[in-house]
Design a protein that fits this description.
about 35% strand, 3 helices, three-stranded antiparallel beta sheet, Ribosomal Protein L22, Chain A, elongated, alpha+beta, two-stranded antiparallel sheet
């Protein structure tokens, strides 16, 4: 994927779900056309992250329509999607014998890049 191939991009940061769980859904829709990806996200069992990625994908599609109105939405596909780790929230939970146990609440940054591919 080259810089000039990218039609549009979108990103969401500080999503309150771990990157490991997010990557499971992101890998399902990698290198798929946007219509097919939206269908996969709609019927995915991981509902929370699927809804977030679906909203992000719709934002990238809207960005593509705004940036280049001549681009056909049916020809758009997900050129690249990746999930990075965001800041981790550190919390404490009471444990036995007066101790405290650290709880790590992980966050994610999700980036999506759309490209155009002619002819299916």
């Amino acid at each position: 994927m080259k810089k000039q191939d990218i039609i549009s991009k979108a990103a969401v940061k500080h999503v309150r779900i771990s990157p490991r769980k997010s990557r499971l859904v992101a890998n399902l829709i990698k290198d798929r056309y946007v219509g097919e990806a939206l269908t996969i996200l709609k019927f995915s069992k991981k509902r929370k992250i699927s809804a977030i990625i679906e909203k992000l994908l719709r934002s990238a599609i809207a960005n593509a329509q705004q940036k280049s109105p001549e681009a056909d939405v049916d020809d758009l596909y997900i050129g690249e999607i990746y999930v990075n780790q965001g800041p981790t929230w550190k919390r404490f939970r009471a444990a036995a014998m007066g101790r405290a146990v650290r709880i790590l609440k992980r966050t994610s940054h999700i980036h999506i890049f759309l490209e155009e591919r002619k002819g299916r």
